[in-house]
Amino acid sequence: MRADCDLPALSELFEQIFAASPWPMLMLGEDGSVVAASDEHGEATPARVPAADVLLRQRASHYVSLLTGRVPWLTPQQADSVRALPSGAPMHERIHLCRTPWGASITIVDHTALVMAARGQHAADIQTARLAALGFMVAGVCHEVTNPLTSLHSIVQILRSEKALGKELLDKGLDNIAVNVKRILDISRRLVNFSRVGDEPRMRFAVDDAIDEALSVLRQGGQLQGIDLHHVADPNATVFGNTGQVREVLLNLCVNAVQAMGGQGRLSISTRGAGRMLDVLVSDSGPGIPAETRVRIFEPFFTTKAATHGTGLGLAISNEIALEHGGSIELRQTSAQGSTFCLTLPRERP
């Protein structure tokens, strides 16, 4: 666990998160150790852990062993777990790992009924996965929305206290209000989109069409004016998925690349792959990502941008969309000459 994380101070936050989550949860420190378990807190334990099951802390090593990545317990991901209850009955679970300021959280969702039932419950699986991640993100929303609300409250008090309100002060106050309201609306919109399963059916489509649509959005917003764009299209680059969601992921990656370069530089997009998976590489010529922030880039609400340029949800949402499509997003390369993100998606139904 990081040195700046005070465990006693986090105890109350853990209680709130555990109380809000309908699923069992484990909190891990940065060294992979168990910091807290939901079945050790409050009176809701019987509803979250079957009486015939072993305690979460005793099962932690099993869940950690299923994780992958350079530092598995700090790499946001999902994994499937199959284990036997003390009675011998099989238990099918999906685990969701999210990064946190103290290390990581693991949410365990019981999928036994879904696995045993017909496979026609795919949409329910997606909704469950999204809501599991969303439930944890709510804890961050409170802090994220507090800042613009505090600013709004302050400027309103200032405007109300002025007996002779000048045009300059009024314009400044209205500009401040507009900026902070837009930020709150943006956070709300992104969270609503994140929690909702897309209505569009999944199908096979040309990934370069989705790339062109994402780039069109940037052009309309004037964000490509100072960008040297190189898009290497491949007519055989088809993927299977939700067109709208994949387009949102590609747009997020391109927006991040343009912002990393400060609106001036080279943006390269190419597709490649063989077999059942396809890679979309998005590269920029920006200054790269500092080593101390690389492990947190997929963490919800983590951002290095100014308050008016990002909410810290773009990569977190994109990562969840890629995972539920049977793919992934990774930072493939970063240096002082730029960064490359790789979006991997299936060509066929996962």
Summarize the structure in words.
The protein has a 5-stranded antiparallel beta sheet, with helices on both faces. The chain is globular, with a radius of gyration of 22 Å. It is 43% helix and 24% strand. It contains 10 helices and 12 strands. By secondary structure, it is α+β, with helices and mostly antiparallel strands. The protein has helices spanning 7-20, 45-48, 56-65, 112-116, 122-161, 167-195, 207-220, 243-260, 291-294, 314-324; strands spanning 25-29, 34-37, 77-84, 90-100, 103-110, 203-206, 227-232, 238-241, 265-272, 277-284, 328-335, 338-346. Helix 5 runs antiparallel to helix 6 (167-195), helix 7 crosses helix 8 and helix 8 (243-260) packs antiparallel against helix 10. Strand 11 (328-335) and strand 12 (338-346) form a beta hairpin.
Notable features of this structure?
single chain; 350 residues; 5-stranded antiparallel sheet; 5-stranded mixed sheet; 10 helices; 12 strands; 43% helix; globular
First-to-last CA distance: 36 Å
Tell me the overall shape.
globular
**Helix-strand category:** alpha+beta
Number of helices: 10
Order of helices and strands: HEEHHEEEHHHEHEEHEEHHEE
What is the average per-residue confidence, as pLDDT, rounded to a whole number?
Answer: 79
- Strand arrangement within the widest β-sheet reads 2-1-5-4-3
